[in-house]
Design brief:
The complex is a heterodimer of chains A (423) and B (343). The longest helix of chain A is centred in the middle third of the chain and has 17 residues. Chain A is 39% helix and 25% strand. By secondary structure, chain A is an alpha/beta fold. The chains are: A alpha/beta (423), B mainly alpha (343). At the A-B interface, helix 2, strand 6, helix 3 and helix 4 of A face helix 1, helix 9 and helix 10 of B.
């Protein structure tokens, strides 16, 4: 059992503030993830913990004892680190790398005894890399090297394991394997493991606690689920995310929304309302956004493919409960959105009694003088599951002057034309 | 059972290491006697032991040659080879750079400057010349490293800055030496001869000084093998293993510069040994400094003993400069080993 208390730690690199008043308490048996953008102070905090850097203000306590009172050798028996920098070793064997871990425990010449060998062996076994022992370190793959370095850190028999980007350079299989092993060992040996991680999802999957840093300050600290909220992540990383709970693993996962490409295009003043569903609208909405149009959509059932897509794109939508017919309430909300739009697009949706109100809404849009573009990839007869009602409404759309196109590609062309005509 | 894999491996490795060290000790003894025996006058091996035991130069011509001429230079090559090779290993490991050699920090050019001044001023040609030369070489060498060290210290003794400052200093001093050579063109052969290194001007006084300083320096290096091993993974890892890298850097710079200054003062600049022998030693025992350090020391001593013997045999009755031999033998040997390793 160990306990680390970080009390008001600050650290500066010359004029740059790397850590500011960081306070945290960590108990053994927990895998703590340090998250934050590049330059948020993760590595600096790890180095302060391992004794490589001395905090300028504040102190770190291990079981109530200030780290400053420990000698280098004593610290090496408590903390061991896997750094993110690649080791450029000239032709060393894996065993030689492992042997360095015993430095704090051996005598003045560093001669290994049978206990040292047992510990090395055990660490290699834990990572399932015992057959690497006689191999050249620099001939291993990045994933294998990382495993060796983690085994090396374990062979140091630490109470606290510090990892700087342990999953960097690894493919997904090795990421999962390596972090899985770390988590298991943390439990088995009752260690404190603190890992700076880049991948929020990996942190969500493996870490018990999260310290979320930004510009050297703690933004949020606590159990993983309470820290990894969309507000926190959006604030710190300046991106849009959706956070979901995985139905099987029960761990949360984060889906970033890629909005960067929309920022670069010149925004246009035209608003387009897309009436879609069942995946007929998603690619269209993305294309429209990429061209700088403001897009709204509705009515979409929650869990519908177009709903999920629209959420991901950050589109303002009118939604309806999953698998339910459109209620009058959402119908009216939809009309309001149509009111605010310049152009309404109706995609190639199949119509049933549940969503026929979307077709009615298109007709109203037309009556209100909006330009309505209808995408007709399949004839309406094939898509009418209302016993003919949809076909009647569809015919009226045609009569009252809606523009019909055969596919999504023509749309941009048509919109450009309308825009020019208006100007 | 699979559990024993690491034990088996370690046992095999350390047994092999001990075997190699035993072979290298035998090689050293062999080289030592070759060194005593070979030269302008060959002394038969069976006469050697007896003369050495009685140690009376007046006994015979062989005894006189052996005690007064051969023995000092053989002991000197043994000490100097060991000192250069052990310093090379320490500095290469410390700076994690296999192109570093004991002269990198400016020692050679410092010593050369000291000697050049002595020669140009005519002090070397006086009766006490050899002593003055040695003293000035030692002084120049030590003064240079200490200056490099003092400047680097203000940069926090970062390996790259130490090396760069050493390099810059070497160039600076070399250019001064060139200027002196230009000004004193008639003495240039003396400077040049010293530059190539050699044991012909070795005296017992050199041996006495070396016999104290070099074994002591070697011991001081040997007791740091554990810290040097921690340095193998780089500075960050060494620090987190509890090594005070700054102190280690100070320590090793001071110890190696004393070792090398004494060597240079006695026998001039013998190139190649401090750079190449560590590489050759790595081919035999690997990177663990616990075996690399003794292996390198033994190979360095043997290599210089044999090179010196060769320099005396090849152009009998005259002799070739030792620096020519070490490079001519060492360079192809290294290339051969590299090729063998590569294939």
């Amino acid at each position: 059992m160990v306990k680390i208390e970080i009390k008001g730690v600050s650290f500066n690199f010359k004029s740059v503030k790397a850590l500011e008043n960081v306070t945290a308490e960590i108990e053994s048996g927990s895998f703590v993830g340090l998250l934050g953008p590049n330059g948020s102070g993760k590595t600096t905090l790890l180095k302060c913990l391992s004794g490589l850097l001395k905090p300028k203000i504040g102190s770190i306590y291990l079981d109530g004892k200030n780290l400053n009172v420990f000698s280098g050798n004593e610290l090496a028996k408590i903390f061991s680190t896997v750094f993110t920098t690649a080791i450029e070793t000239p032709q060393m064997e894996v065993f030689d790398i492992m042997a360095t871990a015993r430095h704090p425990w051996t005598g003045w010449l560093g001669i290994l005894n049978s206990k040292d060998i047992t510990v090395i062996n055990e660490a290699l076994e834990k990572l399932e890399i015992k057959d690497f022992i006689a191999r050249q370190f620099n001939e291993l793959s990045d994933g294998q090297k990382q495993k060796v370095l983690i085994a090396r850190a374990l062979a140091q028999e630490p109470k606290v394991l510090l990892l700087d980007e342990p999953a960097a350079h690894l493919d997904i299989k090795h990421q999962i394997e390596v972090l899985g092993v770390i988590k298991k060992i943390t439990r088995e040996k009752d260690l404190i493991t603190i890992g700076a991680l880049h991948d929020i999802n990996l942190a969500a999957l493996f870490c018990d606690f999260i310290i979320l840093l930004n510009k050297g300050k703690i933004v949020s600290i606590g159990p993983t689920e309470s820290v990894l909220t969309s507000e926190n992540i959006e604030k710190v990383f300046n991106i849009r995310v959706i956070i979901k709970k995985h139905p099987i693993t029960n761990s949360i996962y984060i889906m970033p929304i890629y909005t960067e490409e929309f920022k670069t295009v010149q925004p246009k003043t035209i608003t387009i309302h897309v009436i879609c569903g069942g995946g007929t609208g998603i690619s269209l909405m993305k294309i429209l956004m990429e061209h700088g149009y403001k897009v709204t959509a509705g009515v979409l059932n929650i869990l519908d493919t177009d709903y999920e897509g629209a959420i991901m794109l950050g589109i303002d939508i009118v939604s309806e409960a999953p698998f339910s017919p459109i209620t009058n309430e959402s119908y009216r909300a939809n009309l309001k959105k149509i009111e605010n739009a310049d152009i309404v697009i109706l995609t190639n949706i199949p119509f049933g009694y549940g969503n026929i109100k979307n077709l009615e809404a298109s007709l109203i849009a037309l009556k209100k003088g909006k330009t309505v573009i209808v995408i007709e990839e399949n004839p309406i007869e094939e898509r009418d599951f209302t016993g003919g009602n949809a076909q009647v409404l569809y015919r009226r759309l045609k009569e009252e002057g809606a523009i019909f196109v055969n596919n999504c590609k023509q749309i941009l062309h048509v919109i450009e034309k309308i825009k020019r005509a208006k100007e | 059972m699979s559990f024993n894999l690491s034990f088996d491996y370690y046992r095999k490795k350390s047994r092999l290491g001990k075997l190699i060290l035993a072979i290298l000790i035998i090689l050293l003894i062999f080289s030592f006697f070759i060194g005593l025996s070979a030269g302008a006058v060959n002394i038969p091996l069976n006469n050697l032991i007896g003369i050495l035991l009685r140690f009376n130069p007046e006994e015979s011509v062989y005894a006189k040659i052996l005690v007064d001429v051969r023995l000092p230079r053989v002991i000197a090559s043994l000490f100097i080879g060991a000192a250069l090779a052990a310093s090379g290993v320490s500095l290469q490991t410390l700076f994690r750079n296999q192109l570093v050699e004991p002269y990198t920090l400016g020692i050679a050019s410092g010593a050369l400057l000291g000697v050049s001044i002595t020669i140009v001023l005519g002090a070397a040609q006086q009766p006490l010349g050899p002593y003055t030369t040695s003293f000035m070489a030692f002084f120049g060498a030590l003064f240079t490293t200490l200056t490099v060290y003092a400047i680097s210290k203000s940069f926090g003794l970062k390996p790259t800055s130490v090396l760069l400052i050493g390099l810059a200093f070497s160039f600076l001093l070399s250019s001064i030496v060139t200027l002196l050579e230009y000004l004193a063109i008639k003495d240039i052969h003396l400077i040049f001869a010293w530059l190539l290194g050699g044991f012909s001007s070795i005296h017992w006084i050199h041996i006495k000084i070396m016999a104290v300083i070099i074994p002591l320096g070697l011991i001081l290096l040997f007791i740091k093998v554990k810290d040097l091993n921690a340095m193998l993974l780089g500075e960050e890892y060494a620090k987190q293993l509890g090594v005070d890298v700054k102190k280690l850097t100070q320590y090793l710079i001071i110890v190696t510069s004393i070792l090398v200054s004494v060597s240079v003062a006695s026998a001039g600049i013998i190139g190649f040994v401090g750079l190449i022998i560590p590489h050759i030693a790595r081919f035999t025992v690997g990177y663990d400094n616990k075996s690399l350090m003794p292996a390198s020391t033994l190979i360095g001593a043997s290599f210089l003993l044999l090179s010196d013997a060769l320099s005396r045999i090849i152009a009998r009755p005259s002799e070739l400069p030792i620096g020519v031999i070490t490079s001519m033998v060492g360079a192809p040997l290294l290339i051969y080993l590299l090729l063998k390793k590569g294939s």
